[in-house]
Design brief:
With about 210 residues, the chain is of the alpha/beta class. About 25% of the residues lie in helices and about 25% in strands. It has a single domain, classed as P-loop containing nucleotide triphosphate hydrolases (Rossmann fold), CATH 3.40.50.
Length: about 210
């Protein structure tokens, strides 16, 4: 992965205790890092709502962010991708596949519903867009994937919300208003394990850039 200044920005709710201490504080309570901006918030990492927002200026960088996450996923991980058509969900899925050392070409399983790939861990890529009822997901054996030994990645998760486990990672992809190439990626963990995963991803993304003056 190779990111340059301005490629991505990151913002997250700051921790009330033990928050990230990065010099270079500027107006609006932001920390200034080359290529990354971390905005402070009021929510505490240890409790309450915790979210991280990453802004990507190209599909290639969206893939890079997905790859960084993919390297950190473990057996049984469940990742949901929420976003309108054309917001980059498949690009992000390609990045996760790279992070899992999958060499196959990744495509959205719009008609097959589930695509399986073999890598460091199996990847089960689910596209629930065409499912009209959750019963169809049961019939496809989605529960077996969710509690299996691989990584389950679900596009259009709202269509199978009743089947989701208690803990998972939700990622929302939003198209920037004035730039067709830019995306906002919001990471919202459900459960402590995924909160720790997002915190770890934040640390990994910080390593990609240099701290500014």
């Amino acid at each position: 992965m190779s990111l340059s200044p301005g490629d991505i920005t990151i913002s997250e709710n700051s921790r009330i205790t033990g928050c990230y201490n990065i010099t270079g504080i500027i107006e609006h309570g932001c920390y200034n890092i080359t290529g990354v901006i971390i905005t402070t918030g009021e929510a505490c990492f240890a409790g309450g709502d915790y979210r991280m927002r990453v802004f990507s200026n190209s599909s290639e960088k969206t893939i890079d962010i997905g790859q960084a996450l993919g390297t950190m996923l473990r057996a049984g991980s469940v990742v949901c991708l929420d976003g309108d058509l054309g917001t980059g969900k498949t690009h992000f899925a390609k990045g996760i596949a790279r992070g899992l050392d999958i060499s196959e070409h990744v495509t959205s399983p719009t008609f097959t519903i589930i695509n399986e790939y073999e890598g460091r861990l199996p990847l089960y890529h689910v596209d629930a867009y065409r499912l009209e009822e959750e019963e169809e997901a049961y019939e496809l054996g989605l529960e077996e994937y969710l509690y299996g030994s691989g990584v389950t990645l679900i596009e259009w998760p709202e269509r199978v919300s009743g089947l989701l486990p208690d803990e998972y990672l939700m990622i929302r992809l939003i198209r920037a208003e004035n730039d067709d190439n830019s995306r906002e990626l919001e990471f919202q963990p459900f459960g402590q394990n995924y909160a720790e995963l997002v915190a770890g991803l934040f640390e990994e993304l910080k390593k990609i850039v240099h701290i500014g003056d």
